[in-house]
Amino acid sequence: MSDAASTEAPGQEAEPTVEVAHGDYVVSTDRSRIDVAAVHAFLRASYWSQGIPEETLRRAIAGAICFGIYHGREQVGFARAITDRATFAYLSDVFIIEAHRGRGLSKLLLAVIMGHPSLQGLRRFSLTTRDAHALYAQFGFEVVANPDRQMEILRPQIYLSSPT
């Protein structure tokens, strides 16, 4: 892609590349394939990271295991797992662009994520979403059992108030 992200975070070992073909689509963890401009265009308009600066996205990509879905050279989906690769992971920024929805790509993406070697044996794998609960439930995600034990600092407008 014309606007690839750097391949690894400073001090982080290179992650083994996983690629899974499905018809005309490929799910890949190869960061050099990520079309940062396309991912940024989607995420900056999303409800969960509205206005995210591109540099912030680049740092987020560098610090996570990223999964891109490609149709030929076009990036049509994305997700990332923020993880210590031992006990915990957080699934974030999951999307399929509208023109490619309804083809089972979300399920394919989740299957590849859940099967990734660095995401096995984790004590906790979490995500936050306002939709697609039925999709995530198919892969074992459940509503938080004890929400009173969880705390957060939430700044939903942070990217809208910072310079881009």
Walk me through the structure:
With 164 residues, the protein is of the alpha+beta class. It has a single domain, classed as Gcn5-related N-acetyltransferase (GNAT) (Aminopeptidase, 3-Layer(aba) Sandwich). The protein has 5 helices and 6 strands, in the order E-E-H-H-E-E-E-H-E-H-H. It has a 6-stranded mixed β-sheet with strand order 1-2-3-4-5-6, sandwiched between helices. A hairpin with a 4-residue loop joins strand 4 and strand 5. The longest helix is centred in the last third of the chain and has 11 residues. The protein is globular and about 45 Å long. The N terminus is likely disordered.
Oligomer: single chain
**CATH topology call:** Aminopeptidase
Major β-sheet profile: 6 strands, mixed
* Average of pLDDT: 91
Helix and strand element order: EEHHEEEHEHH
What's the name of the CATH homologous superfamily?
Gcn5-related N-acetyltransferase (GNAT)
- CATH class annotation: Alpha Beta
List the domain count as a whole number. 1
As residue ranges, the low-confidence spans are 1-9
What's the arrangement of strands in the largest beta sheet?
1-2-3-4-5-6
Tally the helices.
5
Helical residue percent band: 10-25%
CATH architecture: 3-Layer(aba) Sandwich
